[in-house]
Amino acid sequence: MPPISAPPQLPPIHEMLSRLERALASSPADATELIWVEARRGQESNGKRRRDSYELQERMVLARVRESGRCGTHRTSGCEVSDLEGAIRQAMAQARLSPPSPPPLLPEGAEGALAPLPGLYDPELARMTPGRARELMQRLAEGDNTVRLGWAEGRVAVAGSRGLRRSAEVTSAWASVTAGKGPGAGIASVASRSLAGLGPANLLARARERQSQDGNVSTEGPGGPVPVVLSQEAAAALLEMLNRRAFTSTSFHHGSPFLRDALGTPVFHAAISLRDDATDPRGIPFPFDLLGSAKRPLDLIERGVFLTPALDERLAIDLGRRPTPHLVAPDEAAPSHLFLLPGERPDAELLRNAEGGVWIGALDAVQGHDPGSLRFRALAQGVRKIEGGALGAALPDLLWEGDLRALLSGGVAVGSEPVTLPLGDGLFGGITAPIVFLEQVHGLRQAT
């Protein structure tokens, strides 16, 4: 067997901060902020999903300046001090062409001390290579299992002329196991900041528990409205669409999000409480946002009542509120660490209550095509009938067309055993969700 090569090395944090400091010292702008994000990512898969394998390295450096009451930004991939100084000059040139603007509104406690967040960095993940990943996958790829294992390492440094200094080293990993093939396959996924946090044994056990063992495939799909139980993976897929369409500042700036006129009012069933919490170690924690503002927990939905979206400066002014520490781009705020708060009812009880309904193991290609009503289309996979309070006969993949607002406003119950799944690039965010019971679901039909 050929030797396993060492992973590419990211620049050390102290070197990143040193270059930012030198560029700041030479900046003629009234105020300057520099953000440097460096990341490497990889993924390995087996079977037919081998084409999902990749390895890449990324860099983003952003310069933001304020000069004579005007603001400008410039993005570059260069990281030498001369590149950083050039980015500052480009940002100043943009500022000269921009209209005057008031001083920026900052989130509450933007420049305060960061609370310590242990467990952000796993040295074992930082040494990960495609060869090592393939060795680890062999433990999960028993029989005809299909496995996908991804990993990422990132370093972020923020430095500003007001004295703000932030830096963090993080790792993350995500894994998915599909036990069996075709209808009746068991699907399970998980994400973590550490390799050990993936819990390979538990992941494999969950996939096997969801796999149909007798090969019995029913040809009788749902004939009408039925109760549905969504796995943690399926629930997270719908929450990701909800987040993108309803809780980002972009969704409020453009189009007509259905929550815009619903602040402070009930919009979902009281079982739904959704929180963004980048400080919770059970998710994919991270200490600060793109501006360097310290992260803090933020309730988005509390017992069905819509409290707030993520607020960038422009949206905060529109709504008469302060910005929230969720900046993911110069002009966009988005929740990146979602938690659907678990309920007290055991998962087994929710299955019993869904007798005669169906279990959905995963949702693929969730597409929202009407932001005003949150209508969506998705392919339901790993589908099983619920018979005798347990997973019964397998069903072929189903095409699901529905309205997420109506689904989460009707009869809903939330399980007690959450699982964390990756969000976006898998490095800086995640979604933690339990299983979800939906009392009456329309729009399920066999995919053709």
What do these coordinates show?
The chain has helices at 13-25, 81-97, 123-126, 130-140, 200-209, 232-247, 249-253, 313-319, 347-353, 404-409; strands spanning 31-45, 54-67, 70-76, 146-160, 165-179, 186-192, 226-230, 274-276, 298-302, 305-306, 327-329, 332-333, 337-340, 358-360, 362-370, 375-381, 384-387, 390-394, 398-403, 412-414, 419-422, 430-433, 436-441, 444-446. Helix 1 (13-25) packs across helix 2. Strand 9 (298-302) and strand 10 (305-306) form a beta hairpin. The model has no long low-confidence stretch (mean pLDDT 92). The protein has a 6-stranded antiparallel β-sheet with strand order 3-2-1-4-5-6. A 6-stranded mixed β-sheet has the order 18-17-14-7-23-20. It has 448 residues and is α+β, with helices and mostly antiparallel strands. The longest helix has 17 residues, at 81-97. It has 10 helices and 24 strands.
